[in-house]
Amino acid sequence: VTMIKDPASPYANKELCPGFVRIVMRWTSPDGLTLSEPEIVLTPDEQDSPATQCYYLSILPLEPYTVGIFGNFNIQNQRLLMEPVWSRDHRHWSRTTRQPLFDEDYVTAVCINDIVLEADGTVTLYYSASNTDHNGKIREGDVAENKLYKAQVPRRKFFGRKLEGDVTLVSPAIRFTGKNPKIYVSEGMELTCEWQDMFSTNAQNVEVQINGDVAEVKLAGKIDLTSTGYLHITGKGIVYDAEFPAHAVAGSDRGTHI
User: Fold this and answer.
1) Which residues, 6 or more positions from 4, have their beta carbon under 8 angstroms from its beta carbon?
2) Is the overall model pTM greater than 0.90, yes or no?
3) Which of 8-12, 37-41, 92-96, 141-145 shows the lowest per-residue confidence on average (mean pLDDT)?
4) Backbone angles phi, psi at 155, to 5 degrees
5) How many C-beta atoms surround the C-beta of residue 151 within 10 A?
6) Cβ-contact 116, 95 below 8 angstroms
7) Is residue 27 classed as helix, strand or coil in its secondary structure?
8) DSSP characters for 186-231?
9) What is the average per-residue pLDDT within 148-162?
10) CA-CA distance, 48 to 148, in Å (whole number)?
11) Over 80: is that where the pLDDT of 82 sits?
12) What pLDDT shows up at residue 216?
C-alpha cells in the first residue's frame, strides 16, 4: 500500500484540534434514518494523562460481552495505539488492561478496520501500522513505513482470567450428568480443581487431565450422578473458558460457559 500526502494540504505541527478533546458517542435508530440524542460512552478519565484522547471504538459482540478496540491517542507524542475494552451493554466500557494490544517501539500510529470479524471460531482483526507519528513525521534516520497486518485469536481465548497465588475461580452451580467438564487454559498451565457439594462445606480434590490447552475434570467415578455443586479452580496460568455438558447447570436445560 502506498500513501501519498498532498503537499498543498497543510497540517498543524502537533495537534490538529488544539483545545478540543476527542470522545466517543453513541446513537441508536429504529430505522437507520432517525437518530436518538447522542450519548457519551467513552472519554479520558482520571487515570489517563492530560494528553489522552479517544480516537475510535470498533466493537464485536461476543456473548456474554461485547469487546471493543479503543483508539488511544496521545496528542503530546502523537502516538495512536489500540487498547482492548469490553462492555455488557454497549454503553459502559471497561478498560481493564489499559495497555496497548501491540506496543512495538517503532509503531507510532495504528488504524484498524471499522469491524472486528468473527468466523469459524476465530476472531480476526485487520489493521495498519506505521512508524510515523499521526502527522506523518518519523524519527531521524528512519524510513517511513506503513503496512497492513492481520491478527487472529481463537474465539475461546478472547477472554481469560489470570490465576496465580491464592486466586480461586469458582464455577456456577453445576449438576453432574456423567460427562466431564472441560476447561480451556493457556499452554503449560498448572491447574488444580476441587469439587464442593452444594450441601456441604467440605471440598474434595478431583483429577485434572490436561492435553495442550484443554483440561478435562475427571468427575466421573469421583462424585455421584446428579450431584450439584461447584468447581474451585486454582493454579498458575490463564483460564479462558469452561464448558459443561447439557443439563449441567443447576436449573438449566442447556450447556454453558464461564
Assistant:
1) none
2) no
3) 8-12
4) -55, -40
5) 14
6) no
7) coil
8) -TT-EEEEEEEETT-S-EEEEEEEEETTEEEEE-TTTS-TT-EEEE
9) 83
10) 29
11) yes
12) 93
